[in-house]
Amino acid sequence: MLNWIWVILMLTSIVCAASTGRMESLSAAVLQGAGSAVELCLATLGMLCFWTGLLHAAEQGGLTRVLARILSPLLRRLFPRLRRDSPALGAICMNLTANLLGLGNAATPLGLAAMQALQRESDAPAGIADNAMVLFVVLNTASLQIVPTFLGTVRAKYGAAQPFDILPAIWLTSVAGLLAAVCTAKLLEIRRKKGAA
Length: 197
Hints:
Elements: H1 2-19, H2 23-60, H3 63-78, H4 87-100, H5 104-121, H6 131-142, H7 149-157, H8 167-196
Helix pairs in contact: 2-7, 3-4, 4-5, 5-6, 6-8
């Protein structure tokens, strides 16, 4: 569906440019945008390598395991049907910890492993998401990060004197969004249980 949206947007811009006689402006904008994208990729490469290396060192040093241990009591309350020693709970902890540390590439396989573990422990038929799976997707999508590396890199590239000075605002809005999403998921879960009863 997203591919169709992009195709429609591109075709609309071409039709509008052709009908208003601005094809040269469109061509110049396309070339300039492509050049800016390459420049941004090169500018962010160094910063992303630095932060990924730093966060990988923190993970190897045991910081991920410490954060997973801290998150475990909270997650047991959010996912009450999972046992304390559940592999799904461990995978969820590791996924959220990787997201918290900004290890996006490491978080993806952990998220897939957590979803597979939740499916194995679910009473729902294969291919149907139960409440725990939906809540995990909500938590994973919120993707709270201590250091939003990419955003800081983009701000530095475009001239921000202090690229990470927006961290308190990001943390505040992220936590508020996460709380709203979790509360909504839990309220819908309670409503569904009442409807089934």
